[in-house]
């Protein structure tokens, strides 16, 4: 209950400066579903006006107010039994039912007190006991048992003695101490003394009878005077009652006068507000009616007048003010004026768009080194003065404003389409020159096949023309990209300023995501970034630029196709130039990047990467499937030369590139293909030793990679060195069996018997490997014969190896080391298996060294 009381005071009555006196929970008789709370409240200022308030229980909200002065009748329904119903009569009778009889009594008592205090008993109370109203206990409750009353009265006679009375009692007991032991004598003595005292009191009363008579007459006079005073006070009370009613009436009249003055003041303020804020000056009205937008001064006047009109139309009005006829008519006039001006403005801006879109492009006859994209600066300067009016139109009529960017894109898109096509035609002319016709004649001609390489070998006529064409591709493509950036950026700035389009600067990560994945350069074609960006809601500026430059991406793709056809490796030049230009935009602070241009360049960058990957794939296939000429006698394979030429060319192109991830991947793919091509020599029918041919090619690749020092090919360089060493070892081992063939076969058999478990001391007793057989074999290889066999071997190696690789000294030195190792192995086998036989070869290690040195010196 306390929380309900505090909630009522805090939420409902304290804000209205009312004080809560009493509450009761009730519902309409016969309808218990809707619970209400009746509250008795009074004002916190004078004169106090009591009121009765009906509050809805949930949520707390006021439903009705009744001034208590309008209350006519309070009906308690029953005097004999505790009824929970009661009626309150105001303009009509309200029947209520409460849940507690005590709450009903308390509530009716509060109404009775307020009516007697403030209303002069103007309210009639029926079927309500006076005890309940006055707060006295009921008569039935005062009736008690007589005996119980007498007992309580008797108990009330006993009082505790004071200290003086106790002292007097002790004094009496001391005086009659001899008689205390005899209670009968003591009681008779006290009775005699009491009779003496009573006699004295009676005498004193009889002597004061006259004084008592005088006192009684004085009391009668006082009572008569009190009656006269009461009659006077009653007259005064009746007089003051009428005066109070008159004062209350005057106060109410005064309050009404104050309210009338306040209402007049507020009405005057509201009228002044309406007449001043809804008044458009005649000058502004005339300006908007004429709608002169042909001159800068007229545009400025129209902008100021439009802002004034918007200020009038956006004036905050009360809901009832709009129902006033004058206000409604003024607003209708404003709306008509606004619509007429909007139509004139839209018509004028649309005419400008159409004139600009149908303008003729200038003839493009610039020199090759001065390739430039069209500029729309004059068109933008013509439209920028209308920017304030466009902002006004966007705020006043968004639906009409939304159509203007579309009209602009449709008209200016046609102009840009003609200019961009002319610009790229000029770029193609600058790139191709006289060769343009030859390129157009063979667009379907493949740039390479398995039998004819996609590039020309050094020394050919096409190779002599390659450097100028190669440099021209990079130069023209860089010029095109440099011209496209200011073209798109200026148009983007104009759109954002003129149409007030919301925009956010494209993040560099967005483009880098479209051009970088897996470490360096570009995302794979199956996950293009442009698709990711376009799957999200496009910003208005980018969407509008896409409509204006609808042909830009198509023309740029066509131009890149031409660049790819100018040179066999044009795709590589396009990739490097395009990537550097795109990522170079983010390092330039001179102009903000265009999100639309970034999207277009990201798309063509993916196209360039795809073309580059196709080129590398085709080249890898050519290298792997290249057939070795049947008459090839050795030397470097064509696939190795092609790989070397590509690496030289690509490293030159990527020398200043910012990113080279795709090139590193291409190098690894091509290196693997070249290694596969070299490995295929093992199954080829060559006139030379296969190990020798593979050794030469791996050595050539190893030396080339050591010279280039390409980080991504370090593993391939080490692999080439390892493969080159393996094949040289195999070639040397095969060649060493030729000068001492029988001796070599004999000791191979000895090692085979030892491997089978034959003991070293028992080996000489086998017939095929006896001491006699060993002496026969050794006799066939005296020192002169060994020298002659080595000279034959040297001439054979010299004939097999290609002179450009200069591997003869290396192979001959390896042959010498392996020959000496074999000689030492043969001597060790003779010492172990033929001990004590005195068998030895006819030459020594020193003889072998002298043989090798003399052969080397004789052929220098």
From TrEMBL:
Residues 136-155, 434-470, 514-541 are annotated as: Disordered. Transmembrane segments: none annotated. GO terms for molecular function: phosphatidylinositol-4,5-bisphosphate binding. Keywords: Coiled coil, Exocytosis, Transport. The keyword Coiled coil applies. Signal peptide: none annotated. The keyword Coiled coil applies. Residues 212-239 form a coiled coil. GO terms for biological process: exocytosis; Golgi to plasma membrane transport. Residues 31-118 form the Exocyst complex component Sec3 PIP2-binding N-terminal domain. GO terms for cellular component: exocyst; plasma membrane. InterPro entries: Sec3-PIP2_bind, Sec3_C, Sec3_CC. Belongs to the SEC3 family. This is Exocyst complex component 1-like.
């Amino acid at each position: 209950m306390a929380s309900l009381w505090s909630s009522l005071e805090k939420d409902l009555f304290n804000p209205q400066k009312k004080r809560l006196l009493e509450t009761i929970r009730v519902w309409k008789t016969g309808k218990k579903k809707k619970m209400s709370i009746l509250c008795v409240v009074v004002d916190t200022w004078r004169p106090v006006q009591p009121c009765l308030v009906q509050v809805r229980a949930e949520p707390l909200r006021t439903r009705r107010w009744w001034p208590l002065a309008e209350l006519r009748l309070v009906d308690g329904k029953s005097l004999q039994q505790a009824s929970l119903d009661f009626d309150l009569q105001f303009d009509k009778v309200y029947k209520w039912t409460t849940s507690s009889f005590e709450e009903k009594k308390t509530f009716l008592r509060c109404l009775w007190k307020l009516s007697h205090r403030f209303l002069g008993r103007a309210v009639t109370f029926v079927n309500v006991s006076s005890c309940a109203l006055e707060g006295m206990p009921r008569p039935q409750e005062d009736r008690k048992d007589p005996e119980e009353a007498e007992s309580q009265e008797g108990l009330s006679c006993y009082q505790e003695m004071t200290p003086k009375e106790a002292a007097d009692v002790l004094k009496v007991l001391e005086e009659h101490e001899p008689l205390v032991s005899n209670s009968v004598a003591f009681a008779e003595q006290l009775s005699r003394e009491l009779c003496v005292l009573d006699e004295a009191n009676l005498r004193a009363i009889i002597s004061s009878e006259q004084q008592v008579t005088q006192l009684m007459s004085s009391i009668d006079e006082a009572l008569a005077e009190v009656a006269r005073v009461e009659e006077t006070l009653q007259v005064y009370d009746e007089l003051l009652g009428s005066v109070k009613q008159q004062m209350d009436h005057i106060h109410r009249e005064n309050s009404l006068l104050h309210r009338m003055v306040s209402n007049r003041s507020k009405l005057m303020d509201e009228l002044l507000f309406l007449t001043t804020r809804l008044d458009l000056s005649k000058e502004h009205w005339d300006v908007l009616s004429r709608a002169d937008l042909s001159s800068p001064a007229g545009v400025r006047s129209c902008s100021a007048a439009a802002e004034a009109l918007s200020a009038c139309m956006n004036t905050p009005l009360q809901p009832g003010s709009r129902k006033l006829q004058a206000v409604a008519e003024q607003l209708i006039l404003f709306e008509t004026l606004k619509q007429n001006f909007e139509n004139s403005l839209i018509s004028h801006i649309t005419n400008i768009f159409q004139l600009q879109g149908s303008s003729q492009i200038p003839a493009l006859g610039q020199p090759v080194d001065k390739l430039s994209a069209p500029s729309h600066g004059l068109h933008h300067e013509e439209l920028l003065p209308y920017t304030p009016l466009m902002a006004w139109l966007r705020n006043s009529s968004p639906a009409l404003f939304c159509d203007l960017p579309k009209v602009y894109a449709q008209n200016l898109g046609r102009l840009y389409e003609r200019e961009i096509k002319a610009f790229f035609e000029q770029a193609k002319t600058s790139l191709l020159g006289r060769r343009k016709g030859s390129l157009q004649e063979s667009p379907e001609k493949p740039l390479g096949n398995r039998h004819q390489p996609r590039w020309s070998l050094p020394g050919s006529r096409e190779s002599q023309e390659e450097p100028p064409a190669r440099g021209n591709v990079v130069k023209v493509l860089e010029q095109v990209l440099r011209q496209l950036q200011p073209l798109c950026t200026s148009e983007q700035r104009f759109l954002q300023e003129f149409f007030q389009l919301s925009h956010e600067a494209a993040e560099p990560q967005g483009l880098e995501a479209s051009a970088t994945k897996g470490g360096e350069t570009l995302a794979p074609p199956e996950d293009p970034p442009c698709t990711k960006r376009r799957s999200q809601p496009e910003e208005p500026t980018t969407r509008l630029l896409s409509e204006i430059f609808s042909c830009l991406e198509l023309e740029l793709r066509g131009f890149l196709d031409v660049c790819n056809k100018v040179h066999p490796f044009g795709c590589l030049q396009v990739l490097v130039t395009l990537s550097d230009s795109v990522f170079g935009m983010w390092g330039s602070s001179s102009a903000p990047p265009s999100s639309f241009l970034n999207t277009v360049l990201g798309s063509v960058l993916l196209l360039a990467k795809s073309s580059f990957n196709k080129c590398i794939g085709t080249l890898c296939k050519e290298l792997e499937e290249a057939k070795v000429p049947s008459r090839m006698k050795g030397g470097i394979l064509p696939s190795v030369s092609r790989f070397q030429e590509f690496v030289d060319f690509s490293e030159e192109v990527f020398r200043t590139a910012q990113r080279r991830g795709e090139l590193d991947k291409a190098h690894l793919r091509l290196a693997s293909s070249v290694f596969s091509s070299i490995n295929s020599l093992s199954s080829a029918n060559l006139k030379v030793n296969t190990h020798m041919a593979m050794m030469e090619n791996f050595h050539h690749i190893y030396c080339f990679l050591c010279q280039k020092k390409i980080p991504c090919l370090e593993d391939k360089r080490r692999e080439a060195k390892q493969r080159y060493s393996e094949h040289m070892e195999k070639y040397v081992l095969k060649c060493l069996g030729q000068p001492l063939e029988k001796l070599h076969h004999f000791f191979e058999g000895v090692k085979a018997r030892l491997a089978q478990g034959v003991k070293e001391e028992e080996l000489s007793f086998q017939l095929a490997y006896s001491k006699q057989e060993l002496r026969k074999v050794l006799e066939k290889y005296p020192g002169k014969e060994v020298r002659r066999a080595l000279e034959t071997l040297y001439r054979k190696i010299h004939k097999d190896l290609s002179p450009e690789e200069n591997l003869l000294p290396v192979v001959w030195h390896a042959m010498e080391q392996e020959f000496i190792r074999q000689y030492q192995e043969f001597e060790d086998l003779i010492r172990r298996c033929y001990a004590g036989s005195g068998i030895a070869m006819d030459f020594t290690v020193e003889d072998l060294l002298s043989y090798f040195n003399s052969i080397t010196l004789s052929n220098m």
